[in-house]
Design goal:
The chain is of the alpha+beta class and about 180 residues long. It contains 6 helices and 6 strands.
Length: about 180
């Protein structure tokens, strides 16, 4: 059976609405990205925005908790040209999380990954693959998040949408104990 890779579709107005409450984390995980226009949400590689005015306030990780890591797809432009949009990420957040307003921020931890090996099928289908942290609000039932300086890190869970074997292969992890 052939696997089909697709980014779920959403109207620009919906993406714009969700972007008001789901903020991208950029600048090596230190800042939130400025508010983007409706057009920028789906047409600009937000990770390429690096001017001081593209950043807003610093991220306070004591107010965030990791909901999950998730494998996400991004339209392929060129092998070394990774151009993720905020819209692509928002479209791939599960509807339950959106409507329950669970996700309040996200950060691409790594991408594109293993394009010429593990994820060659995704590449052939016209996509880059990334790993995205989805953050929820910190409360008394969850642990506070921390700034990620290196990925993958010890005792990490396999991202949703990836098998353990894909994860081990993509990162060349020799020690499977590295993963929970």
């Amino acid at each position: 059976m052939k696997r089909v890779f697709v980014i779920p579709q959403m109207m620009d107005e919906e993406i714009s609405g969700w972007s008001k409450s789901i903020r991208p984390i950029v600048g090596d995980g230190i800042y939130y990205l400025r508010e983007l226009s409706k057009k920028e949400l789906t047409s600009i590689a937000y990770t390429w925005l690096k001017e001081p005015w593209d950043y807003t306030c610093k991220v306070d990780y004591t107010k965030l908790s990791i909901l999950e890591d998730r494998k996400m797809l991004h339209k392929y432009d060129w092998f070394e040209s990774f151009k993720p949009t905020v819209g692509e990420v928002i479209c791939q957040i599960p509807n339950d999380y959106l409507y329950l307003k669970k996700v309040i921020a996200f950060q691409i931890l790594d991408g594109p990954i293993a394009m010429d090996t593990t994820f060659i099928r995704e590449l052939n289908a016209g996509f880059h693959v990334s790993i995205v942290h989805l953050y929820q609000a910190k409360d008394s039932t969850n642990q506070k998040a921390q700034l990620v300086k290196e990925y993958p890190y010890m005792n990490i869970k396999v991202p949703v949408g990836m098998t353990r074997e894909e994860f081990v292969d993509a990162y060349g992890l020799k020690k499977k104990r590295f993963i929970l």
